[in-house]
Specification:
The protein is α+β, with helices and mostly antiparallel strands. The protein has two helices and three strands; from the N terminus they run ααβββ. Required for transformation and DNA binding.
């Protein structure tokens, strides 16, 4: 019984440090990849919202034979800025004459 217990070995401090180093390096590579994915998803979501609003403007035009006076008409604008739309740190302006949403640079 004593011989069995003496033959068992654990990990050395050097082996544990090497494993922790490898795990740390993998996390350093993985974390920025995950955060850029979130930013990309926000951008895609914003583009989808802009497409929906453009189609709502076109549907309004098809029904009324004129473009809406502001985005508030189709329940998208705010009272403070009825012809501006903020989406993912970008601002879009609405032109009531042409019905176009353009990105402000």
């Amino acid at each position: 019984m004593k011989r069995f217990i003496q033959n068992q070995r654990g990990f050395t401090l050097l082996e544990m440090a090497a494993v922790l180093l490898i795990i740390s390096l993998l996390l350093l590579v993985l974390i920025p990849t995950m955060t850029s994915g979130k930013d990309q998803a926000k951008g895609v979501s914003c583009e989808a919202n802009i497409r929906v609003i453009r189609s709502e403007v076109n549907l309004y035009y098809a029904k009324e034979k004129k473009y809406p006076e502001s985005l508030q008409t189709i329940n998208r604008g705010t009272a403070e800025k009825p012809n501006e739309l903020a989406c993912d740190q970008e601002t879009y302006t609405y032109d009531a004459k042409t019905g176009e949403l353009t990105k402000v640079k």
